[in-house]
């Protein structure tokens, strides 16, 4: 059983407590559905031949629910416990500079990824096999997740995460404020 995590989210720039509270409820829904699907698969697998169609469909949903759970844990973790600047002596900072030339050029690239049209996530991963950082876009909760790579930073770009406070036209400001609210210590520890 997966249990929902709790987060110590302080007063944030731009995002109201109401938006965060609603968003946490959505996160908890993903945890509940992740558990629910695992249960259901177990149940239906007793007669997997008879339930083949429904099993196939429900199995397809699993990555969506699981991704929704994990992505949000990275997102809320990164805005918990107060904003903290990145430590320029940290391994993460060095890895970003090594991969992208400079921290600022990575940041510009990541912000551009965040403005991808559609619902999904801007993500920073660490490919442990080749020891490389990779930045990308994930559609919905799961489509485009990088196989075998570890999530370092996840920015929720679904409208539910910002529209109540920013309006759809405020997407860019939401991305700017996310970095103001970011606890880099959490991100460094994820690395
Ligand atoms: Fe979300």
Describe this structure in words.
- The protein is an alpha+beta fold.
- Helices cover about 50% and strands about 10% of the residues.
- It has 7 helices and 3 strands.
- Strands 2-1-3 form a 3-stranded antiparallel sheet.
- Strand 1 and strand 2 form a beta hairpin.
- Helix 1 (about 15-45) packs antiparallel against helix 2.
- The longest helix is centred in the first third of the chain and has 28 residues, at about 15-45.
- The protein is globular and about 55 Å long.
- The structure holds fe (ii) ion (FE2).
- Fe (ii) ion (FE2) binds near residues 160 and 161.
- Fe (ii) ion (FE2) binds near residues 23, 26 and 161.
Sum up the structure in keywords.
alpha+beta, three-stranded antiparallel β-sheet, 12% strand, binds fe (ii) ion, globular, 3 strands, 191 residues, 7 helices
Short description:
By secondary structure, this protein is α+β, with helices and mostly antiparallel strands.
């Amino acid at each position: 059983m997966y249990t929902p995590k709790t987060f110590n989210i302080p007063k944030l720039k731009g995002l109201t407590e109401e938006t965060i509270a609603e968003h946490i409820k959505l996160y908890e829904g993903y945890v509940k559905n992740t558990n629910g699907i695992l249960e259901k698969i177990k149940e239906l697998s007793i007669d997997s031949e008879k339930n083949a169609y429904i099993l196939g469909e429900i199995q397809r949903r699993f990555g969506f629910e699981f991704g929704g759970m994990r992505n949000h844990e990275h997102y809320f973790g990164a805005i918990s416990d107060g904003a903290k600047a990145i430590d320029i002596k940290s391994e993460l900072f060095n890895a970003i500079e090594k991969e992208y030339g400079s921290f600022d050029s990575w940041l510009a690239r990541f912000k551009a990824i965040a403005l991808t049209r559609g619902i999904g996530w801007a993500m920073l991963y660490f490919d442990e096999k080749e020891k490389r950082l990779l930045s990308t876009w994930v559609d919905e909760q799961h489509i485009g997740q990088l196989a075998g790579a570890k999530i370092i930073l996840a920015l929720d770009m679904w409208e539910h995460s910002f529209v109540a406070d920013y309006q759809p036209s405020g997407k860019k400001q939401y991305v700017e404020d996310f970095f103001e609210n970011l606890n880099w210590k959490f991100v460094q520890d994820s690395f």
